[in-house]
Amino acid sequence: MKKADWRWYATGPGHAVALTRGDHAGRLVVPANHSSAPASESPDSGQEPKYYGAHAIYSDDGGRSWHLGFVEDSYEGVRNANESTAAQLPDGRLYFNARNQKGSSPGNRLDAYSSDGGASLEGRGYVEQASLNDVPLVEGSVLQVGGEGGELLFSGPSVPDDRAAMALWSSADEGRTFRKALTLSTRKAGYSDLVQIDGEGVGVLYETGTRTAYETIEFRRVPLGSL
């Protein structure tokens, strides 16, 4: 699954998704990211941010075998999809949200959709998500809340130029737009992950601290009614 010209390779770093609806119900989908080496004739060193990309791997047999799904490998320096996260929407499609690793496009978040279980991306692939412009350059997490009327949630720091103030955003239109719903803390904050605990609440696991974002890992239970 790792292409010959890929160097850095990582899954997540958040959770994977087990599909429960649609033609690919039962499939396991893991959002992942990589970096690529420049062409042999290129003057680039390979350290340029444009060589970052996102991809997915999937399994249809409970994890016994894995296949490479979509690959975002434009390497044009405008949208540099990196650490990615995924959720299955109520209509069965997959929603992907990724860190924009120093791309020249505005904002630090990109998103995309897949209607074939992560094998490919719809339309132009990853595009800018302007309603998450308060999020700095960092990993984030998404979660589709189950149950009737459940919204799509995003977690991440909420200071554009600093990893601080972990917050939750909510989307009622399947990720087209997000609104900031709750700030958990004003302290430093880094990576995060989301989980649905039950029908009344979600959990947020995140890095945090007073002087840096990496002093401790905290778990917060958030009632859905507070969002």
UniProtKB/TrEMBL annotation:
InterPro entries: Sialidase (IPR011040), Sialidase_fam (IPR026856), Sialidase_sf (IPR036278). It comes from the Bacteria. One of its GO terms (biological process) is ganglioside catabolic process. GO terms for cellular component: cytoplasm; membrane. Pfam families: BNR_2 (PF13088). Its EC number is 3.2.1.18. Residues 4-198 form the Sialidase domain. It catalyses: Hydrolysis of alpha-(2->3)-, alpha-(2->6)-, alpha-(2->8)- glycosidic linkages of terminal sialic acid residues in oligosaccharides, glycoproteins, glycolipids, colominic acid and synthetic substrates. One of its GO terms (molecular function) is exo-alpha-sialidase activity. PANTHER family: EXO-ALPHA-SIALIDASE, SIALIDASE. Belongs to the glycosyl hydrolase 33 family. This is exo-alpha-sialidase. It comes from Streptomyces davaonensis (strain DSM 101723 / JCM 4913 / KCC S-0913 / 768).
